[in-house]
Design goal:
Elements: E1 5-10, H1 17-29, E2 33-37, H2 43-46, E3 59-66, H3 73-94, E4 97-101, H4 103-137, H5 141-165, H6 171-174, H7 186-216, H8 219-246, H9 254-286, H10 295-300
Antiparallel strand pairs: 1-3, 1-4, 2-3
Helix pairs in contact: 1-3, 4-5, 4-7, 5-7, 5-9, 7-8, 7-9, 8-9
Keywords: Cell membrane, Membrane, Transmembrane, Transmembrane helix
Main location: membrane
Pfam families: MMPL
Amino acid sequence: MNGPFFIAVQTSSKDDFDALGKTIAALEATPGVAQTIPSSGMMPILKLDKSVFGSGGTVTSVIVQPTTAPSDPATGALLDLIRTETAPKLLADTGTHIYVGGTQAVAEDFTTRLTAALPVFLLLVVGLGFIALMLLFHSLLIPLTAALTSLLSFAGALGVTVAVFQLGFGDSILGVTGTGPILPFLPIMVFAALFGLSMDYHVFLVSRMREEWATSQDNSLSVRLGLAGSGRVVVAAAAIMTSVFLSFVPTPIDTIKLFGVALASAVLIDAFIIRLILVPSLMTLFGKANWWVPRWLGRVLPNIRLE
């Protein structure tokens, strides 16, 4: 079923059924609206009920059913159309104020706000992570690789989540009761947890490589020995976190199940594909450039050692 909008209607005078009728007619005429409750055809019956406008006599509500699904971009476009065109026209013609609410409208507004905040959030988190790794490893390429590959893990985890909870792949196996739009705050929550874990795995892996590089100055040897020495630690840590997140899946609450699938898939992708396969491969290809830092920057950066 398509998610409805709940319209609060405030007329300029008490029990103004004419204004309510014009409001309903304007909403019905808005492109993208399937029906309204009440509809224009119900107005003769509605006029017999003096309690329609509540105790104050000026406020009532109308339910608007879109023609499109909640996840369809056209539904968000309809919300904007009602607010930017239908509402101002009604105010000018009848003095009636309309306010669009309901779960669907709240979700659209929340998504808009989060979409605007997400780039700033990603820049802040990734930027701080880049600085921390640069201080630790005295390198520019290693923190850049860590940041970019974390975004790959993030994209993969969101892809799995959308496939299951929005497109319905494997939903019956996982016991998902219904598919629909992904919660708008999920990307921020998942990325915050994933970035912290992926940085941990990256530090486990690369700190051992750096020790070997300081001794041998052989990049290929350092990558191999670092992977052999710390790979098992990353596998064990990832297996523990994956089992914790997968424990969310049997719950009957889809929201908790969604977080479990998203975080478990994020850890699996990041640890077993990104950190243990992609990162060592890239570091082998990059060679000595992994450990390069400008001389002036190297003199400024403090020496931090992990024991």
